[in-house]
Design a protein that fits this description.
Strand content of chain A: 15-25%
Order of helices and strands of chain B: EHEHEEEHHHHHEEHEEEEEEEHHH
Radius of gyration of chain A: 16 Å
CATH architecture of the largest domain in chain B: 2-Layer Sandwich
Mean pLDDT of chain B: 96
Largest sheet of chain B: 5 strands, antiparallel
CATH topology of the largest domain in chain A: Ubiquitin-like (UB roll)
Shape of chain B: globular
Shape of chain A: globular
Number of domains of chain A: 2
Distance between the termini of chain A: 51 Å
Helix content of chain A: 25-40%
Radius of gyration of chain B: 19 Å
Low-confidence stretches of chain A: none
Number of domains of chain B: 3
Largest interface: A-B, 29 and 29 residues
CATH class of the largest domain in chain B: Alpha Beta
Number of helices of chain B: 11
Oligomer: heterodimer
Number of strands of chain A: 5
Strand content of chain B: 25-35%
Helix content of chain B: 25-40%
Strand order of the largest sheet of chain B: 4-5-10-6-7
Order of helices and strands of chain A: EEHEEEHHHHH
CATH superfamily of the largest domain in chain A: Beta-grasp domain
Distance between the termini of chain B: 47 Å
Mean pLDDT of chain A: 95
Largest sheet of chain A: 5 strands, mixed
Structural class of chain B: alpha+beta
CATH architecture of the largest domain in chain A: Roll
CATH class of the largest domain in chain A: Alpha Beta
Low-confidence stretches of chain B: none
Strand order of the largest sheet of chain A: 2-1-5-3-4
Chain lengths: ~160, ~280
């Protein structure tokens, strides 16, 4: 069957792609549209490196056929990065060395952004539970959890 | 990418129609957390796939104190409902937040072993499943739904459209044991429900996940409990019976030997939890 045309909202702007049936959102973002923050990891929904927000909910973009996001609102790391500087979550990861190789970072930061939107001052347990689907093979997670705690603290004291 | 056609029906009727027209070679996908990895990796090479995400099967309603759960209700929504605590616990124990945003209750009935943690809880709750085909709908108890390893009573032209959970009678406990605290396959999953009248057990369900070809009910454990006062002896006898009648398997997660011992341990712990919750009425 022929390729399909799919329209959706990407980081606040209209996007339209021509894709083979069931091409993943992850592949479309990275390979067709050049939004390379969204990494390809396990392609099984098991690692979190391709996490994006769809209508504000964090999802593994490797498990979403592009047809399933037609008409929906997709947000990638590019979409939460201000024109100047970094978002509070990004800044906290940078300040706290919340990464080493950086491959998991966009997924971690999308997840953290979604978490802090729902719960501006999560406890450490809540952060750990929320990160259950995002794998990091470098840091041992502590700097990542620290960074998210710091981002929450910074937001609540109005530092950034 | 070999998929030639991907169907996204907008109503249950359209979904049933597409399935009837395309036949059993059509891969039916609900949340996509099991099917998409198979397609992405080329382990399955379906020519035609139907996704149910927009098929209008996502109603979640309280009915007579229980729940009517549309097949494509996500595990995130199941986690957030407050009517049946055990289902919230089971959803929380499954996968991760991001995957729960996609994974569905209907899909959980088809999760390959050792999955199906929500299905295990549903079994303890006496859930029934509504199957819909061109000739109409029929309802079967979940206990009769599974027939073997990855096989069910679902006919080629039928879809699971909803799951009905009656009002919870008795005290319940749900325990999943994995090798990590979260986002982990089950070594063993235990869901128990114990009905008591003045301290004496009148009925019980001991459901086991990752302890057979599909989620199973341990009837011997039930027999050991009924008529007892849920004391240590009865709990021990039920745990022994469950371990004996379970049919665990060895995989990369755990060995058969280990799983059988964990069945005994976690059935005991779950029943102790119910016993210590006092009268054990309606959690």
């Amino acid at each position: 069957m022929a390729s399909v045309v799919v329209s959706f909202e990407l980081n606040g702007r209209p996007a339209e792609v021509l894709a083979r049936p069931m091409t993943t959102l992850q592949s479309v973002l990275r390979n067709q549209l050049g939004f390379t923050a969204t990494k390809e990891g396990c392609r099984q929904g098991g690692c979190g490196s391709c996490t994006v927000l769809v209508d504000g909910e964090p999802m593994p973009s490797c498990l979403l056929p592009i047809e399933d996001v037609a008409g929906r609102r997709v947000t990638t790391l590019e979409g939460i990065t201000p024109i100047d500087g970094l978002s509070p979550v990004q800044q906290a990861f940078l300040d706290g060395n919340g990464f080493q190789c950086g491959y998991c970072t966009p997924g971690m930061e999308m997840l953290a952004t979604a978490l802090l939107e729902r719960n501006p001052s999560p406890g450490r347990d809540e952060i750990v539970e929320a990160l259950g689907g995002n794998i990091c093979r470098c840091t041992g997670y502590q700097p990542i959890v620290d960074a998210i705690e710091a981002a929450a603290g910074a937001a609540s004291t109005g530092e950034r | 990418m070999t998929v030639a056609s991907y169907f996204l029906p907008r109503s249950p009727a359209e979904a049933v129609e597409i399935l009837a027209a395309r036949g059993p070679s059509l891969m039916v996908m609900s949340g996509g957390t099991v099917a998409m990895p198979l397609v992405n990796e080329g382990i399955s090479l379906p020519e035609e796939v139907m996704g149910l995400r927009f098929a209008g099967l996502d109603r979640l309603e309280v009915v007579d104190g229980g729940l009517e759960i549309g097949a494509t209700v996500t595990l995130t929504r199941l986690l957030r409902q407050r009517t049946v605590r055990m289902l919230s616990d089971a959803a929380r124990s499954t996968a991760s937040w991001t995957v729960r945003n996609l994974a569905t209750v209907g899909g959980n009935l088809f999760t390959p072993p050792p999955g199906g943690d929500v299905a295990t809880a549903l079994l303890a709750l006496d859930a029934s499943v509504t199957l819909t085909g061109p000739a109409g709908s029929r309802t079967v108890p979940l206990a009769d739904f599974f027939t073997g390893f990855m096989t069910t009573v679902l006919r080629d032209d039928e879809l699971v459209t909803s799951i009905r959970v009656p009002a919870v009678e008795g005290g319940t406990a749900y325990l999943k044991f994995g090798r990590k605290q979260a986002n982990t396959p089950s070594v063993v999953t235990v869901a128990v429900r114990v009905v008591r009248d003045g301290g004496a057990v009148t009925d019980a369900r001991i459901a086991l996940g990752a302890a057979g070809p599909h989620p199973i009910l341990a009837d011997g454990a039930r027999t050991a409990l009924v008529g007892s006062r849920l004391d240590d002896d009865a709990i021990g006898a039920a745990a022994d019976a469950a371990a004996r009648e379970s049919e665990p398997f060895s995989d990369g997660i755990a060995s058969e030997w280990y799983r059988r011992r964990m069945v005994r341990l976690f059935v005991r712990r779950a029943l102790e939890q119910v016993a210590s919750a006092g009268a054990g009425e309606g959690r």
